[in-house]
Structure formats: C-alpha cells, structure tokens
Amino acid sequence: MAAVAADPAAVDAAEDREPQRKAVPGLESQRRQIKSSESGRERPLRAGESWFLVEQHWYQQWELYVQGGDQDSSTFPGCINNAKLFEDQVNWRLKKGLVEGEDYVLLPEAAWHYLVSWYGLEHGQPPIERKVVELLSIQEVEVYPVELLLVQHSDMDTPCTAQFSHTDSVDLVLRTAREQFLVSPQEETRLWVKNAEGSFERLCNTRVTVLDAALKTGQLVVMETRNKDGTWPSAQPHTTKSASEDENFQGQPGICGLTNLGNTCFMNSALQCLSNVPQLTEYFLKNRYLEELNFCNPLGMKGEIAEAYADLVKQAWSGHHRSIVPHVFKTKVGHFASQFLGYQQHDSQELLSFLLDGLHEDLNRVKKKEYVELCDAAGRPDQEVAQEAWQNHKRRNDSVIVDTFHGLFKSTLVCPDCGNVSVTFDPFCYLSVPLPVSHKRVMEVFFVSMDPRRKPEQHRLVVPKKGKISDLCVALAKHTGVSPERMMVADVFSHRFYKIYQLEESLSSILDRDDIFIYEVSGRSAIGENSREDVVLPIYLRERTPARDYNNSYYGLMLFGHPLLVSVPRDRLSWDALYHILLYRLSRYVTRPSSDDEDDGDEKDLEDKDNIPKPGHVAGGSSQDPGPEQAGPSSGVAGGSRAPVDNSAGPSHWPQRARRKHLFTLQTVNSNGTSDRSTFNEDTHGVSFSCEPGLGRREGGFLGSRAHDHLPSPPAQPYIAIDWEPEMKKRYYDEVEAEGYVKHDCVGYVLKKAPVRLQECIELFTTVETLEKENPWYCPSCKQHQLATKKLDLWMLPETLIIHLKRFSYTKFSREKLDTLVEFPIRDLDFSEFVIKPQNESAPELYKYDLIAVSNHYGGLRDGHYTTFACNKDSGQWHYFDDSSVSPVTENQIESKAAYVLFYQRQDVARRLQPQPASSDPPASLGSSSPPNSEFMDVN
C-alpha cells in the first residue's frame, strides 16, 4: 500500500469518484442501514479491508438527527466535515494523537458510502481511507501509515511525500520511488535512509518490511541511480555508513541511544530508566537471569520478555553502539500486550508497569504458586500483620523485580456507619503520587461587542476550574464593563456555532483547544405594554460557489468568516429592516455601495413593481441607515442605534429575490448553515418569530430557560445566513479587516503556579480520602457496600523506589496535564518521616535515597515527547537520552516541569554495589542534543 500525498488535483479527482448523491431514505431507514453495515465490527477484521475515519462530532450529530425522526429538525448534520482531523488542508495530513471514540469513529466501507451518498463530503476534503493490516498475527486498522520523504540523490532538495503501510516491503518503497522519479527499468538503483545522527545508512535488504527496517514517518529516503560508467554517485564516506561500522565503535557502556520506531519515545524513555538501575542491569549482564527463567508460569510470557530485555541491555552496555534499534523488543511487547501494538503514542509509566510485571513473572523463582488466603489485621499488632503479609507475598512472588522494586504499605479503611476498621498490608512496585491541583483555570476567549466599530478582543480569563459559564461572563465583565446578563457564550468551529452555552453549564465541557466567543447582546426584556422585547439571532456568512448538482439547494454555498449573535426586535421586524440591522453590524468591514454603483432607474422599476421599500428606507424614519448618533434609549441595535422597524407588509419570498442595490440576500438555515429550515412566519403585518417547540434545544440549549439565563429570548429562533455573490463579496467585503482583532492587556497574563516539593506529593498520597461511588468498600460488619474513608501509609521501602507523578488528570468531562514544577532532591531524599514502621526495627540508613533516573514528558495530552535523564552506574555522570541521541548534562538541568517518573536508589545499596564518584560538569557535547531549556519543544 503506497500512496503519494494528495495535491489539489488529486483531491478533485477523488471527489469525482465519490458516490453520486441519490434519493435519501427516511431517517429510520438510514439508521437501520448504517447499523446493518456496521455489523462487520462484530466479526474479525480482514487484511486489506477499507475503513473510513469520520469526525466524532459530525457522527454524533447524525445519530442525534436520525434518532429524532424529524427530517426538518435543526439537528440536520449537513455534509460530512472532517476538518478537525486534519493538521493542514494542503497535504491533508492527519493530526497526531487522534483517539478513536473521542476524535473520530471508524466506519466500514459500506457505511461510509451510504453516508457520503446521502450527505456528501465537505468540498475539497479527501476521504480518510485506511486499510486493515496484519501486525504480529493481529488484524488492525492502520490509522497512521508511515509517511516517507522520497528524494533522488541528484536532487536532494525536492522531496516527494509517500505513505506506506508498516507491512509493505522496502522493495515497494524502491518501486514507488522509481515510478515517481521516472527511472527506466534498465537503470540500477538502491536506497539510503537518513538516520537521527544525520548520516545515511543503506537499505540493503529490500525484502524486509517497512516495520522491520525501522522506517518511521518523516524519514528521508534517498534513491541513488548507478552512473553509466558503472560507479555510484555516492563517494562520500563521511556522509554514509553501513550497519557494520558500529562494530569498530568503542564508547562508554550504557551511553547508547534507542531509535524511535515511530511514536515509540515512551518506550525508549522507560527502557533507559530501567537500564540505569545498577543491580538490575548487573543481573542481566552477568547472565544470572538464565538460571531463573520461568518458562511454565501461566502468568508469564514464557521467558520471551526477559530474554528480549536481556538482549537489549547487553547491546546498550556493550560499548559498541551509538544507538540500537529496539525492534525485536517492541515486537515482543506488542505480542503480549496488544494495547502497545502499532505506533500510537502511549504512556511511559504504563509501559514500565507492564514491563516490570512481565519481567517479574518471567523470572519468578516460584514455579508453582500456592493458594494464600489474605487475612485482615483483626486487632493484631501491625508488625505481626505486616510480616505475615510480606511472607505470603514472597510465597507466590519471588524474583529480582521483587528484590529490587517491591515495598509494603499499610491500608486502613473505616466504615462511616458502624466505625468498623479494616487494616491490611499490601505490596507495591511503584508509588503513584498526586500533585496539588490548582482550583483556578486560565481560558482564552474572544469578546464581540455590539458596537460594530470595535474589533473583537482576545482575553485571558482566570475562572474557577469547577465553575460555570456564568463565571466566565463575570470574569470578562471585569475587563469590558459589560454586564454578564448581556453576554452569550458560544463555541465556534468551522465558521458555525458548534454549541451555544447556557449560563448554568459547567466550564469543564469547554476544552482548551475550543474557540470560544462571547457576544454582547441586548439586555432588554418586555416590561409593560409599551416596552419592546428583543430576540437574539445567530447569523452565518455564506458565499455562493460553483458546485456539482447534488439536487440539494445548500450545495454551492460555503460558510466563511465568523458567525454573529445579533439582537433584533421580536415584534414587527421586516426583512428589509433586518437587512439594515445586519448591514450596520457588518459596517466595520463591509463597504456601502456608492451612488455610482446603483442603477436608479431599474431599481425604481423593480421597487414600484413589487411594492418593496428602498433598501435605505425605514418606514417612519430617515432614508439613511441608522447610526449611533440616532440611538434612542429603547434601541436594540449594536452601538445603541435604533433598530429599523417596518409595519408594512413584507415580501412573501424575499430571500429568493435579489435586489441589485442590496449587497447580499438573507436565508433561514439550520444550525449547520446548510439547509433551509424556515422558522419565519410572514403575514400582512410583517415578519414574526415562531415559537416552534424544541428548536435549538437539541443542540444543547440555544438560549435555555429565560428564568435561569436572564436573556431576552423566546424558546426558539431561526438561524439566518447572509449569502454573498462572489463578485459582491470581492468588491465590498474586506476579509483582512473582518479577521482582525485586538489583544487585551490580560492576554499576557500567566497563571503563576508555585512549585511544590516532592514531599508534599507524598503527604497527599498518605492523606485520608473518601472512596468514590464507583468504588465502594464492602463492610463485613454492615454487610453492605460503603463509601469508607481510606488511608495509605508506607511501611517498608524497596532498594529502588519508583515515584510516578500523576500529571495526567482524567474526569468524565475533562482531561488535562498538570505542568506544575515539582522540586525533588538529587541526593539525600529522606523518607523517615513517612515510614510508619517503628524506627527501632529498622536501620536509619534504609530511608535515604539518591536519584538515578527521570522519565520526562514534554507537551500536552494529545501529543508529546518522552526523554530520559539517567546517571551512569560506572561513571556517575548524568546523561540526557532523547531517542537515538545522547548527551552529557549537569545535575542542575535535571529538575523541570517535564519530570514524570522518578527512580531513586537507596544509599546503602549504592554503597554496596559501587561507590559513585563526585559529580562534575561534563565537557561540551559535540553533535548531540541537549535537554530543552523550557517546557516547550518539538514533539515526535
């Protein structure tokens, strides 16, 4: 499977091959057909099958639409729009770190063709087709193929991007390059690949797969063509090397990088940390593991994980390699833990947890595990219960992993009803400690004033993390002086309102990546007979574009620009008056036509014929458009001007009538801006708003309940589209000005996060907490599940203590990474204050630890990069491991906001193994990377 990256012509060709739109079945029929075609999910995948990615939100909107059963519903999803899945709209490359079920759904080929034939695909977008491949005897949809940059040796500056499956052969890469660069069959060629060090390695074996050759996305592959005299153009030994060169290399053992196989930096980071645990590495280097391999443990991996790890350690500590390719180890891990199959980004701590468990079971000295009954303390002394628990643990689990990493903590549960206390002692392999969480959150929003002369303002607001939409409005009011009651909050995506929030909704439903706009609206409600109530209309901008005939009126109209929320009078609003209100709101970037642009004679004839007032005329008022200087106290138009109201009869089908003097026409549309779902009622008294029940509420509540939101709005409103002809838009619409905005002084504000000490995190770990409803405790006294209080205490610590900083926070509505700086000591971390085991039973030196390794995570939740700091057991020198690159560092570079997993060695163990020399500043690194100076860096 090779595919050259799409260009516009290729996209057009793909569109021409799209299924032609046909008669759309009823909603229930649609639901049944898609459900039937998706039944393929229940059977095993087959290699070569095609599956298609569809943006999650669009698919959810479609499900909502068909479940509602109303074809005229405002939940109509419009054409399929996968814009959120693409990194750019030129090469149509997928964003990194997309998650199935959160960002996209996978649909079988039949379901995709149904949907695209019924709804169409957003103009210009290619289908996202992916094939099922077989990796390690497991079939999976390959969402992220390998994207290589192909170049000719004679022209290294003009790469061609091509995609390959991990299961494709290197020979296919070569054939694709030959076809792309028009090399004749008679000419002899060969391939080179550029590695992380910048040198080139020859791909000698073209029969191996892309996976086996360790090719990864973004790598440069050079095709070289033999000269006519029989020589090869590459006669530069300083730019190329073969795999055998490493055999003559002699470096320091352990100072060896690991090649990134494609988003495997998480694995490399965990391996480098574990490789620098002295007693474990010595265990493998001295082959002591061979005597303890457990091939018959049903919980183990038949020794394969241990053997693969041993081979990796021996290569890394041989001193003969600058870097090695951990492909065999990656293959073994994927075979026994399918979650690590493929080349998605994962968590280094999760890989570490699997690896420690796998090594333990593969090296377990207990060949046959006996049944051990777990006993509660039942009032017995802690020392007795702890010793019993540890002995029981060792009867079933006895390995080098237990010797090195296992400790014991005390767990105390107290029933809130009867006061029953349960005490148990449980082993642990690492500590996952929480970080103090800030109760504040910084959110970026754009404020859109009712005054059309003011550009939108970007603001950074500090709000309660568990606050409501109303808190966001209150925070903005402090900067703008606009009352929160006159604000509406919306999520804008792809030129339309993705959601308009109610004031009582939680802020947790807004993600940091969402584009949030807060609009100033009229605060006027009906009070008394002579008062006028306003309604807020959502306004979209559309441009007519040439399009194929899909027998649907909404095709050929493309949304553009930013939508608006505009206050208009609820009663007696004519189409002509609405036109002038909107023209006024757009006046900052829409130029009014001059008198030279008008054809007065023809225009007058048209007006006389249809009994339509002149565009500039407002019944009972001036012929000029209203401006701020004409504003009255009852005005509902932006900037305070009086809203034009016309009590005369309105045209029956105005949106379909174009008036030459008018710059645009108006059309009622649904919430997606893609179909005519008219909600205007027109009669002899003008235009009035309907109160069609339920309209808008299915999108999450357009304006919500007036009693709670304090907003002047009826229960349902239409969406209005402003439709532009291309020539009129080009002539009168200033796109640069329309996209302009200003930054408020608060944009530079950064929420200061005070650093926390590692000891504070450990204190939080040992704090009393109440169990959650999803995880109750069964009280043997009450005979029912209870939300008991729970407290963990450290009883016995291991030789090597792994501390996992819980930077990733997941809730039902939100996910975030905590970038708090945790201050941790390099030496002399003292745990004596946290261990509750009586001091007279343990030597004091058993509580002091020195740092030996750190797994770092840079970036956010969806993308990121893992690296490692590690102290070499032989030299005592710290190094920075960034995949295949290794460089020396000083101790003052180790502490950062990226620190994620900490490895500490007990001081008595370090002295027993080998005294470590004093640390000194390293020499400058030549040609190798250094750790980033801040938390921001490129991600892989």
From TrEMBL:
SMART domains: DUSP. Gene3D superfamilies: Cysteine proteinases (3.90.70.10), DUSP-like (3.30.2230.10), Phosphatidylinositol 3-kinase Catalytic Subunit, Chain A, domain 1 (3.10.20.90). InterPro entries: DUSP-like_sf, Papain-like_cys_pep_sf, Pept_C19_DUSP, Peptidase_C19_UCH, Ub_carboxyl-term_hydrolase, Ub_USP-typ, USP, USP_C. It is found in: Cytoplasm; Nucleus. One of its GO terms (cellular component) is nucleoplasm. GO terms for biological process: protein deubiquitination; proteolysis. Its EC number is 3.4.19.12. Its main location: cytoplasm. Deubiquitinating enzyme that removes conjugated ubiquitin from specific proteins to regulate different cellular processes. This is Ubiquitin carboxyl-terminal hydrolase. It comes from Equus caballus (Horse). The gene is USP11.
